[in-house]
Design brief:
alpha+beta, Heat Shock Protein 90, 5-stranded mixed sheet, 12 helices, kinase, HATPase_dom, membrane
Length: about 450
């Protein structure tokens, strides 16, 4: 459950994930080392140094404890003050601070203050605002005493320097690692971009580079792309020849039937028209949604025009909803052919069709719904395969085909980096076909 929740917030790109893998351990190590250093090493050393100073202060107090005046106290303690490098003077009670004070950047000041109050109960206030000098106010029988000595005797000097140095080198090494990682990931990203462009029908220039494994994958991709391009070229040439060779006899047959008796020629003309339609369907599928060059078009205007053309052709279709506006990179002829195929299927197997469109910053969705019998859920995967005919489910009496309509639409959607989704229409009760393309 935790990993599923965490997966939603993980970055998707390889570079971001690699950066996260590099940065998280570095941050964890820095935090762990910093906490361990501050809590164990630095605080323990500070406490030991503070206890040493407390013992010196107790020695001074024991020597001068029998003094009856402040001058006598100073005189008795003077031999020790020079050796211990401590300055002592009596102050008025109103000059004693009401509370302890320390600098905000003093990482060990709280340890010094706590230790002094615990081990030297006579301590009234501790002032550590000066980084070079510490001041302690102690209560005696002769009045408050101010003790001044070097701040470095209570804790290590400038403990933050170690942390700053550690952070500096951590940032420096992380930056160097990022540069190296970016250079290593760049060939993979170039390979991914070339593969993605080829999947959308664009052959961009690509030269394998990078590590040995990436070069092997790059050469394999180039070999695969060359084989596919040769096959597409050979198939296109073959189908172009077939189209020319078959259209010529079909035209001769149509001319011959036109000179025959109308009643006798009508069934044969219908067969010729059906053969012409099947030939056009084969050629549309053979193009594999790869005609034309992607260009920036307005999908709303494109779909609106396709619906208007279908209405002029006598089809019961209407555009019921259109959300969003803008332009995106599409092959207009291929998208138009796909929409026309969906509308044709909808009015062939149903009485009417409704088209809706949604254009968001993330995706384009073109939806065609009809009131026909629909396609059962367990047959929808089979329905988009080439030459698949589900006429018993789609009411064969309303029309016929070669089973390429949905296959052409699916290929068009895939060529644009999208997909064709089939479902049940909640509005009309028939088939709901969605062309979804990411932006």
């Amino acid at each position: 459950m935790f990993f599923r929740w965490l997966k939603r917030y993980m970055p998707r790109s390889l570079y971001a994930r690699a950066a996260l893998i590099l940065a998280v351990p570095m941050i964890v190590v820095l935090l762990a080392v910093s906490v361990a250093f501050l809590q164990r090493h630095l605080e323990d050393v500070t406490k030991q140094m503070t206890l040493t100073v407390i013992r010196e202060l107790q020695l001074i107090a024991s020597v001068a404890e029998r003094a009856e005046t402040q001058q006598e106290f100073i005189a008795r303690a003077r031999p020790l003050l020079g050796a211990l490098q401590i300055r002592v003077r009596f102050v008025d009670a109103d000059r004693v601070p009401a509370e302890d004070r320390r600098s905000r950047v003093d990482y060990t000041g709280h340890v010094v203050i706590e230790t002094l109050h615990e081990s030297l109960p006579a301590t009234r206030a501790v002032v550590l605002e000066n980084t070079r000098e510490a001041t302690i106010y102690v209560t005696t029988g002769l009045g408050p005493v101010e003790l001044l000595f070097d701040r470095r005797r209570l804790s290590p000097a400038a403990p933050h320097q170690l942390i700053v140095t550690m952070l500096f080198f951590a940032v420096l090494m992380t930056w160097i690692s990022f540069l190296y990682m970016r250079n290593q990931l760049r060939p993979i990203m170039r390979l991914a971009a070339a593969a993605d462009a080829f999947g959308h029908g664009n052959a961009v220039p690509y030269t394998p580079s990078g590590a040995t494994e990436v070069r092997v994958a790059g050469h394999a991709f180039l070999d695969m792309r060359n084989r596919i391009e040769r096959q597409i070229e050979q198939r296109t040439l073959m189908l172009s020849g077939v189209s020319h060779d078959m259209r010529t006899p079909l035209t001769r047959m149509r001319l011959t039937l036109a000179m025959m008796d109308e009643d006798e020629a009508a069934p044969l003309l219908q067969d010729v028209d059906e053969m012409q339609g099947l030939l056009d369907a084969f050629l549309d599928f053979a193009r594999n949604a790869s005609e034309g060059v992607p260009e920036r078009v307005d999908p709303v205007a494109l779909v609106t025009q396709a619906v208007a053309d279908a209405q002029r052709a006598g089809h019961a279709v209407e555009l019921v909803d259109s959300e969003g506006e803008g332009e995106m990179m599409l092959r207009p002829l291929d998208i138009r052919r796909a929409v026309e195929n969906l509308i044709g299927n909808a009015v062939r197997y149903g009485n009417r069709a409704e088209v809706s469109l949604a254009l968001t910053p993330r995706f384009l969705r073109i939806r065609v719904e009809d009131d026909g019998p629909g396609i059962p859920a367990d047959q929808r995967t089979e329905a988009v395969k080439p030459f698949s005919r589900l006429d018993p489910a789609r009411n064969q009496n309303r029309g016929s085909g070669v089973g390429l309509g949905l296959a052409i639409v699916a290929d068009t959607a895939r060529a644009h980096g999208g997909a064709l989704r089939l479902g049940e229409s909640g509005r009309l009760g028939g088939l709901c076909a969605d062309i979804v393309i990411g932006r």
